[in-house]
Design a protein that fits this description.
Blueprint lengths: L4 H30 L4 H36 L7
């Protein structure tokens, strides 16, 4: 599967939107939900942050290797005009 420039642009826009939504959720909801739990809540939030960044990192690694395999096998972006 080779990527077009438009596809990469849309992907980057969606990544920014997802990061912004996650940041807003953490900003608004976390203090109200986790505050009554005390130190256990802080530990839970840290664990959730680790899981989220691990998923993002894995997705980025998969994307980069798919892009590299497309570039090496196809000789460039075949859909770019």
């Amino acid at each position: 599967m080779c990527f077009s420039i438009e596809w990469i642009e849309n992907l980057l826009i969606w990544i920014v939107v997802v990061i912004a939504v996650l940041a807003l959720i953490r900003l608004v909801l976390v203090p109200f939900v986790i505050a009554p739990l005390g130190p256990a809540g802080v530990t839970a939030i840290r664990a959730i942050n680790i899981v989220v960044w691990a998923i993002v990192s894995i997705a980025l690694i998969i994307f980069v290797f798919n892009l590299l395999s497309c570039l090496l096998a196809g000789g460039g972006f075949p859909r770019v005009h």
